[in-house]
Amino acid sequence: MIQEPLTCRSDRARPTTRRRRAMAVAAALAWTLTLAGCGGGSSKNDSTSGTQNTVTTGKVTLTGVVSKGVMVGAVVTAHPVKDGVVDTATVLARGITVAGGRYTLPAFDAPLGSPVIVRAQVVDKTVHTDELSRQVVPLPTGFEMRSAIVPQVADTPSPLPVSITPYTEMLVNAAESGADKLDKASIDQGKSAVTQLLGFDPVATDVNGIAVANSTAVNAYGLMLAAVSQLATQSAALGCGQTDAGAAMACTVGKLADAAQLDSVQLQLGEVDVGAKLSAAVSTVAGNSTVTNAVDVSQTVDGVTQRLACVPGSLTNPCEVASVDQTVTGVAAAKAMFAAMRTSMDGWMSRGGTAGSGRLNQDAQAFEAAVTGAQVPLDQVEQDLAAIKLGIRLYEDHMAGRSDVMSKGARPGLADGYDRTLETNGTYWPHGGTWADNAIGCMLYKAPNVVATSKEDVAFIGCRSSVRTEIERVQPNGMTPGTIRLTDWRHGYTITPKGVTSAGNLQFDYTTSASKRVRARTCTGSVFPWSLSGCNAQAEVVDERVDLQLKPDGTARGYSGSIIVSPSSSVPAGLVVEVTGEMPGLIDGVNGALLSDRQSVTLTARDDGSVSSIATVSGEVKVYASAAASTPIGTLAIAPNSQITFVAANEDGSRPISGQTATGREINTARFGLSWTTPGAALSGTLTVNSSGWDRSGFQRDATSLMFNGRLDQIQAGVARHWITADLSMSTTGYDQHDVTLPVSASNPAYRIAADFSGTVTPTDGKPPFFLSLNTSKASNEANPTSLTGTLRMGTASAAKVNIQLSASVDALGAQTWTLHETVQDVTLTLQPHQRSTAIRQGSGQRQVGTIDLDRRRASYVDGSFESLDLGL
After folding, report:
1. Which of 436, 525, 558, 589 is the most exposed place for a label (fewest CB within 10 A)?
2. pTM value?
């Protein structure tokens, strides 16, 4: 029979110690993942902005030709735009033009969705060949031309073409001078104006002279560049006074750039009609067969000269350039974002956070399950081990004459979150459904159910390790008498001394089982208490025990093992405790259900029991699902370097007052190196309690900073499929200003709990990595987090395919409000509680480009198009 103490805790109830010690690693992960949602349900908002300063970068390679004629030996550099101006101090990439004026910039991290300015500069060794004379015409050192591109997609399959010519300088200059700032919109508008003037895209079109084999656009480009050389021969008419041919060429390029406008193809500088002069130059070079190589360029000449002769406001030949429709651009950006999400996230997501086909859902749940799976046996085995050590210390102290007490308890208390404002008549369950969670206690016995009275008649030690306790107070009509019923789920241990081994160590055998004990008392006093021991009627009207694990014949199933204690002269109660054997099935702390059949343990704990000691624990725990199982469902290994430090405390765990001799201790810091292996996953990592502190009353000590760093390998058919690395941290603020014995009020403010999670899923099948970071916080009296920020990213930080910045808030009723900003395409979604649709907004101006029907999972755009968004989000 398993003997258990009749009482194992102080009459003074206090909040649980063991629960706070774990700081609920798994619960924290579940908390962040639940709020993050992985989809399903109401979502989130903050309609004020949604646009953040975060810029996602991606690997980009550029190539092209630098020509005013061809320039060999020019230095080409790429620069970002910062605060609306070119950041020339930051060089993203550098190259040199070679034969034909061609350059290639090596792959660099470009800000996706933001302009990159590509600049070509003349240096001492630059050789410029004029298109007209076919002679080398030196350009002034420092002369430069610029081009621009707005990268939209990282890891482009081939280099992006970027020509650098007087006409690309025109578009950059127009964007700089004609807009408030240099950005995607102004660059797009500048390109639109110059493209309308020329009849081709000056950035994407290649430069290769004029030849029969060339495309019409390439030949047109060759003609227009030759026209700049022709115009330079008459540069004085533009206001250039240089006599040097190269200097006159540089001045001409500058005048053309200054004449360019965002909203018109008309080229005008004061009283000088630059457009008319360029038109004349085009006609001149078109008649030069040395330039045209007998290629018919009449179509280009006709088109350009007509546009240069435009008339403002004309219905037939207007100068005005239509504004680039940013709505069209926005629609394209939104579609590009959803396309990237399909290709990058396909197979990763499923709806509702359930164990569906979505791999990210499965991974999140697998990580949570792995952390939970490791924490439950760690918690309960550590607690059982603490109960065993408590019993052996009680026995040794009594046998050595250091103490005459026959029982001892530790870790008593009310459940976390208990609030006396919730008291009602009838049946009352403390918040969380628990009372005295994780209490341990031991008693010395002479015989079964007979407590020893002296050291001579001590036959064995009875200990209990309570996992869950519920209290029910029934007081009909608010009057006495009333009944208190206590239900306790526990592991019970009978520890029998077996003498001293040949090595001088103490030896004990133990038997153990899992049970539920129900006790009730009728109280007749005028004050209805909150504990059995506080009831004036001490006799139980109910005292029954139910075994939770039975053999086929209906009798209790017990487990056994041995304990070796290595004593020392200074620490008679033992310095090293080794436990080998089996322990009962794990008990669910939420509902009391059995989570497993048994655990086999091989554990070593070093602890001299003093406040100054550093306790260590190491070993292995194997968890089995059934009595017949020979293969464990999980194996927990605790690294030898796992350790715990302590601070002085009273026996009941409270803070000692000045002048009081501390007889107990509480955990100060802890560090556990853990691995948890199941057939489908392997989790390894470190659980660290960095700090702990007392509440304002000194009634309770709690962890104030906790971290878990680990890696989870997903295993299928014995092969690792992909893996997750993750960091989870939790911390509290204001705990020392909160009194846990009193309800939250204006004079007793709640403390705050913050949880931060970051993890990366790295697949082995070629898919890009998936990164998730979440930062949440809540008050201690709140059931759910009230704020969240985070990032979801597909791909690496430097080459993101999808990069979503998100934030959330939760109102008093638990409704979530979300804002999601995808930075690659600059798309923002705002989702508020209970809404069935949300606007799709794009760009810094937050223009609406579409609407998402959340019920139908369909995006409808302002251009009349629509698409399915069944992405499993």
Report:
1. 525
2. 0.56
